[in-house]
Specification:
This protein has 488 residues and is mostly helical. The chain folds into two domains: 2-250 and 358-486, no CATH class; 252-348, no CATH class. It has 22 helices and two strands. Strands 1-2 form a two-stranded parallel sheet. Helix 1 (2-21) packs across helix 6, helix 9 (157-172) runs antiparallel to helix 12 and helix 20 (431-454) runs antiparallel to helix 21 (458-465). The radius of gyration is 24 Å and the shape is globular. The model is unreliable at 1-5, 62-79 and 418-422 (pLDDT under 50).
């Protein structure tokens, strides 16, 4: 009877936590749509069409295909396919939308976050009472920022979930049941399939776990093997998409993100102005429009070949082939300047946490199945009417991130001390402390990858920032429990 009551209580707590995760979308009166959301939807539509999956008919107001925002996002199934938007996430988006509408995927993402965070807390803070764990879950969603990312139609939330999954697999694998282990592995594979940057995070955590094993002289070969398998499956899934597209006779290309980064930093602009007279790169066509931000270079929808996205497939292929020669030439001639800007970008990204970027509205997707939803969003959502408190939510996220970071720094000093009469509790080295080290490294790595390669945007660090207060609270809970036991 007690077990049944606790199970019912868990379900009640989970339902309440789920509702709190959905608060940002409720305030917005809609799940959050971002310009990239349309790109993912189009990628999913292309995959569904290739698999002959029946979809609802296009909206009667659809305009001719040539004005499709998919072209502006660099996704064009007629003369080339961009891998910038994951077809795997796009497929999950469009299938859930076809079954239950725009809310389906955000609710599933929020539910996944609730279950994953609570499951992790069972290992991170086993001494915590049930109600305390669920309170931490709810606070992570409402204050830490996990909720707003879960209810956004983007794969951003899976960056944090990937880090959490790998930390549990790496450190707590012996205590995890087979069914739960399979769930963490599946979550990790899905996260890698949903965005290419997540593959870099997984590789970084693999290397960090290997180094941690060497330092502590306790290499976790089984965990390393599972993570390597996870990375291999996710990586092969990304390769499989490219192979399938090429088999269908389509050109597949990766947008030149590194080239865009050095153009945004203005070091490539200097190099091109010095070089274009001798080496007429195709990229030289953009010099007259520089300075340009990385987003203006990649995604500007002004037309007339004003950005990479508006070029033909042949022109895109030529620009992509020039990426490394221009980047290496820029580093050779302006390397110190670029290094300084990259380092500054990393530090700015690590300190930039929020969701103010979600104020950017999606284009009116008049040529897609998503047209009615986007049109309603542009007119009635809280973001459209400027009643969505994005700055307040960002401030709460930044405050919890900063306080969590300070708490971890203080605890790191305290927990590494040797036992004494005045401080009988020592939690180093413990699994929780080692898992925290991995997570902190991954959060910093996320800032380094985004700040140095992609660009400084608050949502990039915001998508993983909620892990810092989560682990700080887990350590505080365990420390308090250990102190209480030692005092008895």
């Amino acid at each position: 009877m007690t077990v049944a009551r606790w199970k019912r209580t868990d379900l009640l707590f989970a339902f309440v936590a789920l509702l709190l995760f959905l608060v940002p979308a409720a305030i917005n009166r809609s799940p959050i749509l971002y310009p990239d959301s349309v790109g993912y939807f189009q990628a999913g539509k292309a995959a569904a069409s290739a698999a002959h999956i029946p979809l609802p008919a296009a909206h009667p107001a659809a305009a001719p295909a040539q004005s499709s925002p998919a072209a502006a996002m660099g996704i064009n199934t007629e003369d080339g396919v961009s891998d910038a938007r994951s077809v795997y996430y796009g497929t999950a988006f469009i299938l859930s939308w076809a079954v239950a509408g725009l809310w389906a995927l955000p609710v599933l993402q929020a539910l996944l976050c609730v279950v994953a965070i609570y499951a992790a807390l069972r290992h991170l803070a086993p001494a915590a009472p049930q109600g305390v764990r669920w309170t931490v879950v709810a606070a992570t969603g409402l204050i830490g920022g996990a909720g707003i990312f879960a209810t956004t139609l983007m794969p951003d939330v899976f960056a944090g979930l990937l880090i959490l999954a790998l930390a549990i697999i790496a450190i707590y694998r012996p205590a995890v049941s087979r069914l739960e282990l399979f769930g963490w592995l599946a979550l990790g594979v899905a996260a890698i399939l949903f965005h290419k940057s997540h593959l870099l995070l997984a590789l970084g955590m693999f290397c960090a776990l290997l180094l941690l094993g060497l330092v502590t002289r306790r290499p976790r070969w089984a965990s390393l093997g599972l993570i390597a398998l996870l990375i291999a499956v996710g990586g092969l899934g990304q390769v499989a998409f490219s192979m399938a597209a090429r088999h269908a006779g389509l050109t597949v290309y990766s947008p030149p993100f590194l080239l865009a980064r050095v153009i945004g930093d203005r070091t490539a602009e200097q190099y091109l102005r010095e070089t274009c007279a001798q080496t007429p790169y195709a990229t030289c066509r953009f010099v007259s429009r520089m300075p340009m931000t990385e987003n203006e270079f990649l995604w500007s929808g002004d037309g007339n070949a004003s950005s990479f996205a508006s070029l033909s497939a042949a022109e895109k292929a030529q620009i992509c082939s020039e990426q490394w020669p221009i980047v290496l030439g820029t580093l050779r001639t302006h390397g110190l300047e670029q290094l300084g800007k990259s380092v500054a970008g990393v530090f700015r990204q690590i300190a930039s946490v929020g969701v103010t970027e979600y104020a950017v509205m999606p284009r009116d997707a008049t040529t897609t199945l998503l047209h009615p939803d986007v049109a309603a969003y542009r007119q009635d959502s809280g973001i459209a009417t400027q009643t969505m408190p994005l700055r307040l939510l960002s401030s709460l996220m930044l405050a919890s991130y900063a306080l969590g970071g300070v708490a971890l720094a203080v605890l790191a000093v305290r927990l590494s001390r040797r036992a004494s009469d005045t401080q009988p509790v020592v939690l180093w080295p413990t699994r929780l402390f080692e898992a925290t080290l991995l997570v902190v490294f991954a959060v910093l790595l996320n800032g380094a990858v985004c700040g140095a390669i992609s660009g400084v945007f608050d949502r990039y660090q915001g998508r993983v920032a909620w892990l810092i207060p989560l682990f700080a609270l887990a350590i505080l809970i365990q420390l308090r429990s250990a102190n209480a036991q030692s005092a008895r």
